[in-house]
């Protein structure tokens, strides 16, 4: 069994920032003690060690919202589980939570098997959220299979009715009741479809289809309306609810209103809703900044940062859905451009430089949002998201002084572009360790397929 000593690091987790040395055996952290405690072990010729020279040591970063190999409109997203996981590892990410498409017949076991087949090339660990598009007696019965598969959460859409993804609102009450029985967390893409369809008709009728109309058609009001409706339904059932990719000040206001009413509501936001604004949809390359929900105004960016500062948002995740420029430029219509951008690789570096670096959050808080909370909320804690003895040795070594200009050339996504090109960052992950193995250090060092499915326990939000 390999033995690895990580010494002279600054550890950051939910216990704070502290100077311990970590001993790893095989895949696990087996000891954590004051600096120098293991110096007698260094004579052991079988022990490898890394002198961190004061760099940070984080529990491996978790991106709780990714879409590798996503089939959409006759094409597939550019990052499959192999390429995507290399890019993730380069960015200090050791676990992702991706999605399983809805099986119409409710055969969740088969759907899991099929998705797992695609995921088995991953070099990092993974879990899934199960998409639910319909609810009847059959689905209700079969939902219990998710417990056996060991998934902690499902995802519903309040939009994309025309594409068939939307779950009818009349079904919220029964679905939530069943999820509560099973202790499965509902996560939601919240945008009111009826409002969007009306706005879409208005813009289409006038032939206004340029990308810059996307934020007007998918107005932040639509996010607010959907969030409130979901919150009310969750309150009636008394179940926790989690909103994915919250994008707007309006949306966050709705969340605050619901919390005051007693709704147990949690949110995730993505770096692009904090750092990019809709003026980018007016440029030549507007397609490269196109996703759903759309980019909002710089006012929204600011309001969401403030919400982060006030601990109103629990998780940073990316909604990573990488398409190549070629795929993005296939259309110039706001009603047709493939939505999605790459994000996992730049998640940690951006949140450190622009979140911690600009004093919106403390370093400990950032690690809570990037590792501890996703692990707890999606049932992977303390196997993941922790530097405790007994946890998986998933570790991100982070150099706070390393300065870098992000470019397509120094990033690894098969998108081969980044919406953050030319962003300057100070602080960057330098070594990524997954279950005791160095998987990324300047380049990928992991074997294809060395990542693994991590069975989830019940979400911490039910306790
Ligand atoms: Zn998504």
From TrEMBL:
GO terms for molecular function: hydrolase activity, acting on carbon-nitrogen (but not peptide) bonds, in cyclic amides. Residues 56-438 form the Amidohydrolase-related domain. One of its GO terms (cellular component) is cytosol. Transmembrane segments: none annotated. Its cofactor is Zn(2+). Belongs to the metallo-dependent hydrolases superfamily. Hydantoinase/dihydropyrimidinase family. This is Amidohydrolase.
């Amino acid at each position: 069994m390999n033995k690895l000593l990580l010494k002279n690091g600054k550890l950051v987790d939910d216990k704070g920032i502290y100077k311990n040395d970590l001993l790893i055996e095989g895949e696990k952290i087996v000891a954590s003690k004051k600096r120098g405690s293991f110096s007698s072990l260094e004579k052991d010729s079988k022990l490898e060690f890394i002198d961190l020279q004061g760099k940070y040591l984080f529990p491996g970063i978790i991106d709780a919202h990714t879409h590798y190999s996503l089939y959409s409109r006759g094409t597939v997203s550019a990052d499959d589980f192999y390429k995507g996981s290399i890019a993730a590892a380069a960015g200090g990410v050791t676990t992702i939570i991706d999605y399983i498409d809805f099986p119409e017949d409710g055969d969740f076991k088969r759907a899991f098997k099929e998705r797992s087949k695609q995921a088995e090339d991953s070099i990092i660990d993974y879990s899934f959220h199960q998409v639910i598009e319909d609810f009847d007696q059959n689905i209700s019965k079969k939902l219990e299979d998710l417990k056996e598969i060991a998934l902690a959460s499902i995802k519903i859409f309040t939009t994309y009715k025309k594409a068939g993804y939307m779950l009818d609102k009349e079904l919220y009450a029964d679905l939530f009741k069943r999820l509560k029985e099973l202790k499965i967390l509902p996560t939601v893409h919240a945008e009111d479809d009826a409002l969007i369809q009306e706005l879409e008709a208005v813009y289409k009728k006038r032939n206004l289809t340029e990308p810059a109309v996307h934020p007007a058609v998918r107005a932040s009001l639509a996010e607010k309306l959907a969030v409130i409706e979901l919150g009310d339904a969750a309150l009636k059932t008394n179940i926790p609810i989690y909103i994915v990719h919250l994008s707007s000040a309006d949306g966050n206001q709705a969340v605050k209103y619901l919390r005051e009413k007693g709704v147990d509501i949690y949110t995730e936001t993505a770096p692009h809703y904090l750092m990019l604004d809709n003026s980018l949809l007016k440029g030549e390359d507007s397609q490269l900044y196109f996703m759903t929900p759309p980019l909002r105004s710089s006012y929204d960016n600011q309001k969401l940062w403030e919400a982060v500062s006030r601990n109103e948002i629990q998780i940073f995740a990316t909604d990573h859905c990488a398409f190549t420029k070629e795929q993005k430029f296939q259309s110039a219509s706001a009603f047709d451009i493939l939505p999605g951008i790459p994000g996992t690789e730049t998640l940690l570096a951006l949140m450190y430089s622009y979140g911690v670096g600009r004093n919106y959050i403390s370093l400990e808080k950032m690690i809570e949002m990037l590792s501890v909370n996703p692990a707890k909320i999606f049932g992977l804690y303390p196997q993941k998201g922790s530097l405790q003895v007994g946890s998986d040795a998933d570790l991100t070594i982070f150099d706070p002084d390393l300065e870098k200009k992000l470019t397509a050339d120094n990033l690894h996504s098969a998108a081969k572009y980044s919406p953050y090109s030319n962003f300057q960052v100070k602080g960057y992950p330098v070594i990524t360790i997954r279950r005791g193995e160095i998987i990324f250090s300047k380049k990928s060092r992991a074997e294809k397929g060395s990542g693994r499915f991590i069975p989830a326990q019940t979400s911490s939000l039910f306790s």
